[in-house]
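Researcher: We're teaching a course module on how sequence relates to structure. For the next exercise, students receive a sequence and then see the predicted structure as tokens, so they can try to spot secondary structure elements on their own. Here is the exercise chain.
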Amino acid sequence: MDYPTIPLDHHCSVIRFEHPGIWALEKATGVLTHPNKETKKSTKQRTLLNADYQHQDECYYWTNKEGEIQKLFLIHRLDSPTSGIILAASSLEIAEEIKSSFLKKEVRKTYFALIKPKGRIKEGLWKDNLKEKREGGKIRVHRGNGPPALTKVSIERKKCGLYGLAMLRLEPLTGRTHQLRVQCALRGHSIVGDKNYGDFTYNRKIARASKIDRLCLHAAEISLQINYDGRNHDFFADSPIPRSMGKLLV
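Model: And here is the predicted structure for the students to work with:
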């Protein structure tokens, strides 16, 4: 596939590029979507692009070989430990149009999560009111009087393999902070490797036994429709679950 050169982190990749400048990028676990605003600029952070970042415009910027300023606008984000698809755009106009689709809930996203089931897994629509709090300088999310979080849930793979894990298909209908991780934890099905809301003892056992130590949550599919050149165009990108997650199901 032909696309302009961008300074991606070497563990990240381009899944799809489409005119007029829509990007689907695959982010590795442990990589920040963008630099943290509070962190000193001199502090090394591993980010999606090896470039400067403007928080106000939500874009990376760099100079190409011809001395021209290039920009890449982020459309949404993934938590650092979550791997998978992130959308970006080459222009502010395209970015704003796709962000509008997100606000209208016209973008469909699918995640896969590995869990250690605790009792029966209830499929269907999960609904929780979630509230953010800052604890020890970090954001934590709890059930409370905040806005609703809605997620469609189905079992992708039943309990299986050496570690007795199951894989859930999660389709968030809202975009609350830590939404999927918190909703799984609230039902006793915490996501493997979740260092904020998970079963910390079990996480350590899995990491020691498997040598795999990551949050087992992956943004696997995204689809939307965008209007440009006077016509509606369908955009779809998918990313298979990482091998590290697949090994835990064997």
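Model: If you want an answer key for the exercise: Helices lie at 92-103, 179-186, 200-210, 243-247. The chain has a mean pLDDT of 93.
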